[in-house]
Amino acid sequence: MKFDSSRTKHEHVIEMTNIAARLKYIGMTLDKVFLVHFLLNSLLYKYGPFQMNYNTIKDKWNVHELYIMLVQEESRLKNQGNHSINYVNNQGKKNEFSTKETGKG
Questions:
Q1: Is 95 part of any domain?
Q2: What is the chain's alpha carbon radius of gyration, rounded to the nearest angstrom?
Q3: For a tag site, which of 40, 43, 55, 69 has the least CB within 10 Å?
């Protein structure tokens, strides 16, 4: 099951946790670390750096900590694409302010 942004991350994490609970009910216990990896692998490709970062840290997260980090990562990804620069080129135009200041105009 992949996270497809059709619902919130909270709903996705809850649904995956519910699946794990149903599996436990029928006798298939999932390790909490496995569930975190299962959730990480269900994310979209844009979360690749987030997944690599998780794999490089020594401490492992539980599902709640993963959810908190996902919310922060989503915020970072949204802010990453919102930067813009406006550039105005006045080359070739006479700068009236500077000529008045120097008394050449």
A1: no
A2: 25
A3: 55
Domain total of the chain = 1
**Contacts within 8 Å (CB) and 24+ apart, 60-63:** 60/33, 60/36, 61/36, 62/32, 62/36, 63/13, 63/17, 63/32, 63/35, 63/36, 63/39
Give the Å distances, CA to CA, from 50 to 19, 30, 40, 78, 91: 23, 23, 9, 14, 44
Q: Is residue 13 part of a domain?
A: yes
**What distances in angstroms separate CA 32 from CA 61, 65, 71, one per listed residue?**
9, 12, 20
Instruction: Indicate whether 38 belongs to any domain.
Output: yes
Q: What is the pLDDT of residues 4-42, one digit of tens each?
A: 777 777 788 888 888 888 888 888 887 888 888 888 888
pTM of structure:
0.59
Contact 105, 99 (CB under 8 A): yes
Token pair of 56 as six digits: 């490089």
